[in-house]
Write a structure and sequence with these properties.
101 residues
Length: 101
Amino acid sequence: MSEDDDLRRDLDAAAFRRLLAHLAAHPEVQNIEMMNLAGFCRNCLANWRQEAAAGRGIPMTKDEARAEVYGMPYEDWRKLHQREASPEARASFAAREKPGS
């Protein structure tokens, strides 16, 4: 890996950590809202992280990946922050194509 590749990896990692910190600071933003607006959510990030680990031969469970993204076990986050999705949000989500996450 060249210096440019190392720098890019470091910058990408810093941006990802900042994204996780931003999401942690805004638990009021629900995953279904993120999916409807942006096409990805916290669970997608966890899935992508798990896939990246698997691609390097590193075992990582879904629960481990989610804990890294959520900053706590997923079930704890749900109990603290997840609220019932509105009928409009559910309808919008159902109308979307299945996401590629």
